[in-house]
Design a protein that fits this description.
The chain has 483 residues and is α/β, with parallel strands linked by helices. The chain has a domain of 219 residues: Rossmann fold, CATH 3.40.50. It is 42% helix and 15% strand. It has 21 helices and 16 strands. Strand 4 and strand 5 form a beta hairpin. The longest helix is centred in the N-terminal third of the chain and has 19 residues. The structure holds pyridoxal-5'-phosphate. The site of pyridoxal-5'-phosphate (PLP) has 16 residues, from helix 13. Pyridoxal-5'-phosphate (PLP) binds next to helix 13.
Amino acid sequence: MSVPASRLATASPARYVSTRGRMPVARFCDVLLGGLAPDGGLVVPQAYPRLTAEELAVMRKLSYPDLAFAVISRFVDDIPEADLRSLVHRAYRSEVFGSPDITPLKTLEPGLHLLQLSNGPTLAFKDVAMQLLGEMFEYVLQREGRTLNILGATSGDTGSAAEYAMRGRKGIRVFMLSPHGKMSPFQRAQMYSLQDANIFNIAIRGVFDDCQDIVKAVSGDAAFKNAHRIGAVNSINWARVIAQVVYYFKGYFAATRGNDEQVSFSVPSGNFGNIFAGHIARMMGLPIRNLILASNENDVLDEFFRSGRYRVRSSRETLQTSSPSMDISKASNFERFVFDLVGRDPAMVARLWREVEDAGGFNLGEAPCWRNVEQYGVVSGRSSHAARLSAIRKISSQYGVIIDPHTADGINVGLQHRESGVPLICMETALPAKFAETIREALGRDPEVPAGYEGLESRLQRVAIMDPDVEAVKTYIAGRTGS
Ligand SMILES: *Cc1c(COP(=O)(O)O)cnc(C)c1O
């Protein structure tokens, strides 16, 4: 099933379709609270907005919140402009992100920069999207007179970013499952020390996959899901993706003098959300030369960009590494990129993901569309534990800056692809304080704890510890959602 010509004729960046072609055209607020499209695909805009040279010139001068409004408003036409502007301004305040720049650019040496995305409340880049999501969810739920109970599973960064974004919000509760005893002490303290009445931490005696399975089972029970208004905030959420597009513009403007220059971005990748936002920025007309994808030992995506072969890993094949937020077996946002790669042909995407189900993957290396990868400027590489440690040492000794293990993967691979005359912007996706053990291994000392986080680990913690039992989790949720 291909996109009918009549639909293409009215293609709009604020109208949404599914990568698998079987969802009626939807508007932004229709897709904001949802996960997968009803046909099992992912929601994408009918078209990408294209910016003119004049528009880019105006955007260069904007503050972060105004820039965020300029970008995000292109994808949203069912929230009144004044309301959207105030949501964005509330999300991106210097009190929350530590500076009016929100994502400041730190220059290590001429032509080599770090885009600091991790100055939000949980010290990882996921805050940039989650803080906006918190504002948008509360706004839309209030407007529609609805409430929502967010159910999720986390191995670390996502759960805490979601909780800090949703804490204290009207009409929203968060039930977050985490593997008991498996997160770093800092990550655990971040989540479990929250005392807000709408935040419920559930530690499951098991591993992350057990948590994920429980979430799937509970969300798969349609009657329970409807009765208890269960929702999600996972990495395929469309609003999270567009919030991330903004900092590519911000980084570009900060690293260049004029809009005729090109830059490359290096992105530590897991579920392909962050780097996909870079792809959108490039499609909108931002002069990005390369998007450099960095994997760790779990190199599903590096394998694809080198060979055209997408081969999903089993959980047994998925390694636990010292950059845990990139330990993926498949990349949930990747389908959106493949949709563009195959010329936005939903029948082709549906066929490829049937192959994923039936045969564990597909191969586009010989397909005519493969040359689009080069046209989209995506290159890749992988990093190892030893390479992470040496990057942490090198950046510390050369520039006096301590980076976290995920950022180290990005810098490693970024430097492999660095070209002279093209500024390289490396995404800082977390602060080192979250991963003290690896920093100690690399540098022989503890990372600095940012102001306000001293003594975090000794604060009172609030968590329910439970067996991996779907019914017990349902009973716990039902007892707290008031229906
Ligand atoms: C989530 C995360 C990543 C991976 O980002 P994706 O958008 O899933 O590709 C990388 N680094 C850190 C620190 C993260 O929390």
